[in-house]
Amino acid sequence: MRIVLGVTGGIAAYKAALLLRQMTESGHEVQVVPTENALRFVGAPTWEALSGRRVHVDTFEAVEKVNHVALGRQADLVVIAPATADFLARTAAGLAPDLLGNVLLTATTPIVIAPAMHTEMWLNPATQANVATLRSRGMHVLDPDSGRLTGTDTGPGRLPEPEAIWEFAQQSHASHGTAPTPSTSFLAGRRVVVTAGGTREALDPVRYLGNRSSGKQGTELARAARQAGADVTLIAAAMDVSAPEGIATRRVESTRELLDAVLEESTGADVLVMAAAVADFRPAQLATSKMKKSDDGSSPTIVLERTEDVLATAVQQRDNGENLPGLIVGFAAETGDESGSVLDYAQAKLERKGCEMLVVNQVGRDQVFGQDDTEITVLYRDGAAPVTAHGSKTDVSVRIVELIGQELDPDTV
């Protein structure tokens, strides 16, 4: 695959070198096209050494090859990382002041853009309008991650990790040109809320109790539901992956925040899919300062209390007349022991929670959490025969969404 990697002038440009390495080590031909400002952060020798190709910046370089047209025409994939606010604005306006701008105007292949900037710049209405414009033209714009920015600042605007950008870019290339069929719109007109990731419960200002959830399953479910025609909202706790491009996303951290978001976002929705890994316990008391090691070598005693039961609360409030989804899908990440199997515990959970469907998988250090493949069993409250599926989390998510469609209307899938 021939890839153009565009790099614009942001401090996160150094991460693009890691992205380039992933592309070349996967066997692809990569032509790096930096802007002049990008070279102020990472010089041309770095890009040339990692790509094995000469770097061009100006439209009038390599004129004999008609570079400003040829690069875009010949590319199988264009990836811009990082993309500054200024770059987004120029691209939305269709400007081409340099070689990279010309590449975007001539490319007919998937264009993936990974923005990175300070929080205020990302949230500025002008930037959000530019992103909406680019997405409306078919460009794939990732939402930035939330985390440490330049200096001491933190918040949304951080460039996603190179692994996440590369994974998203490959998915965008693989799906390019696939025409939807009538069977892919069976959730058209439906509103679906999906939770993903793992909740974190603060222990002190710097530590927390959490779990190993990567968020992969939840994000793939959100993506599959959207591909089936649904209007999707993703409620994202801590995740190792980026939220799917173009899906409304609400960020949460604790279980209490997740419960509030679920009850608010699910009001009036058709389906709630609770794929998030919810912490069962939190510290009964939150330390107001960082807990210190004692000089005598003793360890602190931490008293835990149970967190809110998000799934059961949603079901209960729905059954009590609240305008919450008629179809609620729970997830059970279980381990078996001498007292019962994974399915034994899952069946008990289904009866206890009262949701319509329960997706069950066995977990452990090397199972499900963070892995690309999974195996699930779907249990039904009405006693219908269990359904199993295995494969990539993408494929399994498509199957789960099909089962959701069948529950809503057996004749549509």
Automatic annotation (TrEMBL):
Enzyme Commission code(s) on record: 4.1.1.36, 6.3.2.5
Pfam families, sorted: DFP, Flavoprotein
Span of domain DNA/pantothenate metabolism flavoprotein C-terminal: 187-405
Region (Phosphopantothenate--cysteine ligase) residue spans: 192-413
Keyword terms, alphabetized: Decarboxylase, Flavoprotein, FMN, Ligase, Lyase, Magnesium, Metal-binding, Multifunctional enzyme
The protein's required cofactors: Mg(2+); FMN
Cross-referenced InterPro entries: CoaB-like_sf, CoaBC, DNA/pantothenate-metab_flavo_C, Flavin_trans-like, Flavoprotein
Keyword Lyase: yes
UniProt-recorded Gene Ontology molecular function terms: phosphopantothenate--cysteine ligase activity; phosphopantothenoylcysteine decarboxylase activity
Domain Flavoprotein residues, every copy: 1-170
Stretches for region Phosphopantothenoylcysteine decarboxylase: 1-191
Recorded metabolic or biological pathway in which this protein acts: Cofactor biosynthesis; coenzyme A biosynthesis; CoA from (R)-pantothenate: step 3/5; Cofactor biosynthesis; coenzyme A biosynthesis; CoA from (R)-pantothenate: step 2/5
Cofactor remark: Binds 1 FMN per subunit.
Catalytically driven reaction(s): N-[(R)-4-phosphopantothenoyl]-L-cysteine + H(+) = (R)-4'-phosphopantetheine + CO2; (R)-4'-phosphopantothenate + L-cysteine + CTP = N-[(R)-4-phosphopantothenoyl]-L-cysteine + CMP + diphosphate + H(+)
Positions with a binding annotation for CTP: D280, K290, F331, K349, K353
HAMAP family: CoaBC (MF_02225)
Annotated function: Catalyzes two sequential steps in the biosynthesis of coenzyme A. In the first step cysteine is conjugated to 4'-phosphopantothenate to form 4-phosphopantothenoylcysteine. In the second step the latter compound is decarboxylated to form 4'-phosphopantotheine. Catalyzes two steps in the biosynthesis of coenzyme A. In the first step cysteine is conjugated to 4'-phosphopantothenate to form 4-phosphopantothenoylcysteine, in the latter compound is decarboxylated to form 4'-phosphopantotheine.
Family listed: In the C-terminal section; belongs to the PPC synthetase family. In the N-terminal section; belongs to the HFCD (homo-oligomeric flavin containing Cys decarboxylase) superfamily.
NCBIfam families named among the record's database cross-references: coaBC_dfp
The protein, known as: Coenzyme A biosynthesis bifunctional protein CoaBC
Organism expressing this protein natively: Citricoccus muralis
